[in-house]
């Protein structure tokens, strides 16, 4: 059985990885946004997420106690050592795809961060108290854009529906706790992830409805990210993200 | 040896690097100054998790202390309690407005945090006929507005 430190390390790492990987994907829009305001918005959201990742990875390194820093954890792990959910690592696609992915994740992320503001772990609580306010803005942003696309032109509607349909199979993993999360939930440190599903569903239904989009039926769900088994997409992403540290180990500026 | 009040006076010169008219105290980022003999501890808190100005603020505090001949100091960043725009002082709000940035609505105005758009006056002409252009502006802490009366775009310090 895992020790409390091991479970905490794994959970902090996962939280950091989810934010870091999604933050990186959003940052890919920087300079390529469909309009200036959205370019800036995605860069800002990415910055929030990467800031949250720094807090989590720093904590993970401290809990682990082997002297690894946030940078060591971000830049010197390979894909099998990343524990993010698959949803966060998928390529950015078109703007509807990016928005739909953000929406499905943000709706979950907000509930999780809200629950963590009452964590018995002081550090997780402190990080969540900051993050929850930021994520409130993220969800608002992705909801508004999904509604705009869904209830927009025929083409924007179709692209948004295609995105939601394609992404749906990656939402199951959000609510399935791994061993570390089960133990932490039992100890009252984090919420039972399965219990977040009902409210997540309600948010999703409300926004999809307003967007005149159809909620896909639950079918086979992809999973694996939480134990380091990823899609083919994360490798090239990490290669780009880590290239400087891999090429010039220890470089600083 | 210096008193806490002297250190606080000294730190008044440290301004937000992005908005150089407002001090860290007025911004609510400066949380504590603890003096123990010759040792000085300064506690600051980030506005946003990813605020890139935070490291600059920390360096600026360290520089101010060093320039004043203080050698034994420690500047610490804490996350909790989480910074809120409600901590911006009245003088800070006034300075933001003079600088052309609309000060944030109070978090007690739930509409501002939870969805609705609060009434925001243009910092240039005072008109309340303004439109939200984007929730995300030139820095993480600002939203982008435009004034329908004087046609000027302006930043609003976002409610957090």
Summarize the helices and strands and which ones pair or pack.
The complex is a heterodimer of chains A (253) and B (160).
Chain A: H1 4-27, H2 36-64, H3 70-75, H4 86-89, H5 95-116, H6 122-150, H7 154-167, H8 179-186, H9 197-210, H10 234-247
Helix pairs in contact in A: 1-2, 1-8, 2-6, 5-6, 5-7, 5-9, 6-7
Chain B: H1 4-11, H2 24-27, E1 30-36, E2 39-44, H3 53-67, E3 73-77, H4 90-99, E4 101-102, H5 110-114, E5 130-134, E6 142-147, E7 153-157
Parallel strand pairs in B: 2-3, 4-7
Antiparallel strand pairs in B: 1-2, 5-6, 6-7
Description:
The complex is a heterodimer of chains A (253) and B (160). Chain A is mostly helical and 253 residues long. Chain A is 65% helix and 0% strand. Chain A contains 10 helices and no strands. Chain A has helices at residues 4-27, 36-64, 70-75, 86-89, 95-116, 122-150, 154-167, 179-186, 197-210, 234-247. The radius of gyration of chain A is 18 Å and the shape is globular. The termini of chain A are far apart. The model of chain A has no long low-confidence stretch (mean pLDDT 97). Chain B is an alpha/beta fold and 160 residues long. Chain B contains 5 helices and 7 strands; from the N terminus they run H-H-E-E-H-E-H-E-H-E-E-E. Chain B has a 4-stranded mixed beta sheet. Chain B has a 3-stranded mixed beta sheet with strand order 1-2-3. In chain B, strand 1 and strand 2 (39-44) form a beta hairpin. Chain B is elongated and about 55 Å long. The model of chain B has no long low-confidence stretch (mean pLDDT 90). At the A-B interface, helix 2 and helix 6 of A face loops of B.
